[in-house]
Amino acid sequence: MISATVAQQLIDKLGKENVIAEKEDLLVLGYDSTPGLHAMPDVVVYPTDSEQVQAVVEIARDNKIPFTPRGSGTGLSGGSIPVNGGIVICLNKLNKILEIDEENLTATCQAGVVTLDLFNAVAEKGLFYPPDPGSQKISTLGGNVMEDAGGLRGLKYGVTRDYVMGLKCVLPDGTLLDTGGKSVKDVAGYAFKDLLIGSEGTLAIITELTVKLIPPPQDKRTFLAYFKNIRTAGEAVSKIIAAKIIPSTMEIMDKATINCVEDYVKIGLPREMAALLLIEVDGHPAVVAEEAAEVEKVLKAVGADDVQMAKDAEHAGELAAARRTALSALARVSPTTLLEDATVPRSMLANTFDLIEKLAEKYKLTVGTFGHAGDGNLHPTVLCDERNEDEMKRAHAFYDELYEQVLEWGGTVSGEHGIGIAKKGYLAKQIGPGGVAVMKRIKRSFDPDGLLNPGKIFADDQE
Amino acid sequence: MISATVAQQLIDKLGKENVIAEKEDLLVLGYDSTPGLHAMPDVVVYPTDSEQVQAVVEIARDNKIPFTPRGSGTGLSGGSIPVNGGIVICLNKLNKILEIDEENLTATCQAGVVTLDLFNAVAEKGLFYPPDPGSQKISTLGGNVMEDAGGLRGLKYGVTRDYVMGLKCVLPDGTLLDTGGKSVKDVAGYAFKDLLIGSEGTLAIITELTVKLIPPPQDKRTFLAYFKNIRTAGEAVSKIIAAKIIPSTMEIMDKATINCVEDYVKIGLPREMAALLLIEVDGHPAVVAEEAAEVEKVLKAVGADDVQMAKDAEHAGELAAARRTALSALARVSPTTLLEDATVPRSMLANTFDLIEKLAEKYKLTVGTFGHAGDGNLHPTVLCDERNEDEMKRAHAFYDELYEQVLEWGGTVSGEHGIGIAKKGYLAKQIGPGGVAVMKRIKRSFDPDGLLNPGKIFADDQE
């Protein structure tokens, strides 16, 4: 509970309509999209500009109240759950696109702008903002930056990090920091911007950002390739890259996912196949034609069981939309969906599919795997029921064994979802105690009192 | 002076041949490529693997001796000058390319590999490592990472940062930290790698790195555009980008630079022109043909006084090589060359040329300007004589006034050369005292005793 004095201070700064303290209203802001996680905030505030964020941080700091930033809550590792209560700073009212600069090819937005809204706004000016996380229709740019969100176009176009040129943010001590901007090169001082990207809301609160835009691809071709053996799909991905073709998209769905998605969207996916790859090549029409032919050649050589070309743009859009429903489609069929985010060097993809299959069998689990195959980034998803203690134990053993091998292959425990609460246990295994020690020193150098988004990233014995 | 005991410890770990303590040998390792800066190291060591670097750091730490890493010393801000003496750790013997992985499109190298050697080695396998700093024939990859080096291809292909996937480094406390790797996405923990890139050797010593490779462009076309008015050249750059063409290269030389370069390389550059742009478009032949036509159209529309196409690849190579000589060519004609690194949003280029001209006149200085116009990154170079006190005063006043305006335009005091010793005074002006305070806390979190590369980046009153 926060005191009436603090509540009044918040209302004085933000206005009554932007301070929520009723229990039933607070309830929904204690979740994000990670199953099984919840914590109650004491109060939720909706600042409408950077200065209001700064004012809230100052009130929190003066009163030693923990504070947790959030956007739309589409995170998948619990990064915006207010584990210690306190103030939740909801940035969704910071939703203005401030400028689209066609001369410098940049856009400047407030942090609460929805990803797809920016995409559409720049598309109207003939420009392209590539990052397209699965949740792009509701996720905010601030959240994308804080998690370094990927998406379906990551393979060719990179992730959120590759487009952030400047950040305005409020530090835990109340400093308003402006870092980077419209200059395409800037090496003055440490790379704050680059450190803050992917810091999961634990070092600063982003209030504004400037992103790079690029000319859009003129043409695109979309394929579906079906495989009776998922290992072959993994080999196909590696072979396409080794043939020096970088498609914009190479997404995979396994049999369980194909079936759940087909139940959900009914577009005629072949239920008997072990895997499908959704592949898109884009760019100049001449390049697209050549690359499409080359991709088809590689797919046939590697032994794809069927290759279909999307009939037209509408059909291609339908296929991409179907892939985007994968998580929701899987989530419909079981009470609990444990989604993971294992990422390996692409050459290890085929082995990773084998491993997932082997471990699912060993631990008697139903696992649906989908993800950004071209990035080596897979989301093996255990369909389970959290009330079944034994099943949950097996699910965790499955992930433990999977990650152990993934790390041995030079992979990572998170390609795009972050550590948050959900994966604290794995971090030290990946970066070692020395790495964790430096991270904690960095955290302290930004946030000596540990008030900003506490309880995240570091396991309890590391805090 | 270091003690005989410490010298012996170093010899025990690295071998006699890798420890240099003779004064005449040390002298040359107290310089980098920044005019007017020198400091004597007490001892220089040449480790041959990561563990030897770690051993040296441990000896330095145990004996509280400052230590400064360096590569080939091509830096232009004094970043590797051992201002407090101590141990210089020269990484040039860490010169092995460890692996070129054609399946994952990565290369793993020791930090002392020369940039062009990597470029050539991967080119042999039909792959492409784009970063090409002016000093690529002698600069090392470790130095490139520490300065986040740019190059002539930065406009389309980005800078060193855009290609670093993994780093192995030794922290000031002796920890060997492995961060990133061959996975194309990795968001587990804070972005160490991204913080270390551009940290100018003040947070860690890089010993190995893994970089991303890409398929090479299949075709290329090279233009020279001449302008009787340099402002028009700036406008041409903005208009080409605004036409949604991203050439691989758009380099500028002003009249003074054209004349010095022509004196030096004698390839028939027109001495009467106020500026030339060297423009390259590359990629698929069909794209190159279209973009070349479009570039030519924009150049004519904006009022270029002459546009010439390179006759063939050899001629194109000659032109790029001529541009690469700009700094040396300018340096030949005056006792002192003060090179700066102002960078502005591209739309401000034309105004920046005007400003440089106006300030050169105001302060009665000879200024040659060249640089990466496409990146908004200019190197206005004052040709002067450090023995002329009044001229030096005017030169500094010139830069002060220039940077004040550049910062007002949203630019930066360094696009690619770093702060080092040379530009300490400007940093706080750009990032503010709040930014400097956080930087210092980060520095302390890595290096509490301040032994790693002391005397850099922070002005004396900030240390």
TrEMBL record, chains A, B:
The keyword Oxidoreductase applies. It comes from the Bacteria. GO terms for molecular function: FAD binding; oxidoreductase activity. Pfam families: FAD-oxidase_C, FAD_binding_4. SUPFAM superfamilies: FAD-binding/transporter-associated domain-like (SSF56176), FAD-linked oxidases, C-terminal domain (SSF55103). Keywords: FAD, Flavoprotein, Oxidoreductase. Residues 37-216 form the FAD-binding PCMH-type domain. Its cofactor is FAD. Belongs to the FAD-binding oxidoreductase/transferase type 4 family. This is Glycolate oxidase. It comes from Malonomonas rubra DSM 5091.
